[in-house]
Amino acid sequence: MAEGDQRLLGPADDDFHPPVGDEWWSHETCWFWFLIPERSIGAWIYNWIRPNIGTSGGGLSLWDDTTSLHWEVPYFSNYSSLRLPEDRDLRRFTFPSGVSVEMLEPLTRYRLRFTHDDMVDLDLQFTAIMEPWVSVAEHGEVRRPYHFDQFGRVTGSLLLHGEALSVDCLAIRDRTWAVRSERWKHGGGFGYTSAAAVTGESFLFVGDAESASGFVVLDGHRSALVSGGRRVERDAERGHVTRVLIDAVDADGRRLEAEGRSISRIAMPVPGVHGVVWASVCEWTINGVAAWGDDQEPWPIMTWSNRRRT
């Protein structure tokens, strides 16, 4: 089976996975996001558990183009040490943060709900438009899946501070079950970048200026990215990404040329890790075709701080 092969997964992968032995930092995530382009709104529905120490975190983070500060955006919750219930099944589960996930069709369709007083009332459905793209870890001759990415259509309603909004977009989701230490000290500055067009083109790029992984969908065919890079332009005052250029080649020799313009962003504490991620809503072109998507650029806190100061 090749990287990306959805046959590595089955219906049981909609549930939580066994922890990684007795590793203190055994960590499992559940992430969906959505956007409302006409309002420059982006939102993460990101929750995680650390099963070996019995904690859970995350919540809902929602931003627009009025500010990039997480304590000033329209809504932000990102818990870190909530008690994890002993009985849990992600196929129908309410995280301690209040986010509810219900599997309606295995690896395909989910209902997402969240309510907080009179500030937010969210009721969405994610319907996959492709099979999961699977990442694996090599253990001798054994190949173990530990992460997947999947594009889908997100539809439903959002009541935000009394205003009723409609959600209808294409967006990616992902899951990870591995070891992720809170003490993140090195690296950062790479991109987790994605976009999808209503005409079927889409891509996920993970890498930096000199490395590329992920996939691209062109002419209805999905293939792994094997080379290329991500270049960015930045705001001179705050340093955040304003423009992203992706130039990559897939395993079939096809070229991906994508350009993204950040229309709103948040400097968000990385959920469960000592870091910050610049998460942007981006207006994209994929080989000249109009699309919408995101750009994520995570950094260890002091790496970003040192970069800005020097």
Notable traits:
about 300 residues, AttH-like fold, 12-stranded antiparallel sheet, 8-stranded antiparallel barrel, 1 helix, 20 strands, about 5% helix, globular
Low-confidence stretches: none
Main β-sheet: number of strands, strand sense, barrel status? Answer: 12 strands, antiparallel
- Specify the CATH architecture of the largest domain: Beta Barrel
Tell me the count of domains: 2
Number of strand segments: 20
Q: Which fold name is given in CATH as the topology of the largest domain?
A: AttH-like fold
User: What is the number of helices?
Assistant: 1
Distance between the termini: 46 Å
What structural class results from the helix and strand content?
A: mainly beta
Query: What is the mean pLDDT?
Result: 95
Order of helices and strands: EEEEEEEEEEEEEEEEEEEEH
Strand content: over 45%
Structure description:
The protein folds into two domains: 26-180, AttH-like fold (Beta Barrel); 183-310, AttH-like fold (Beta Barrel). Helices cover 3% and strands 61% of the residues. It contains one helix and 20 strands. Strands 1, 2, 3, 4, 5, 6, 7, 8, 9, 10, 11 and 12 form a twelve-stranded antiparallel sheet that branches. β8 and β9 (120-128) form a beta hairpin.
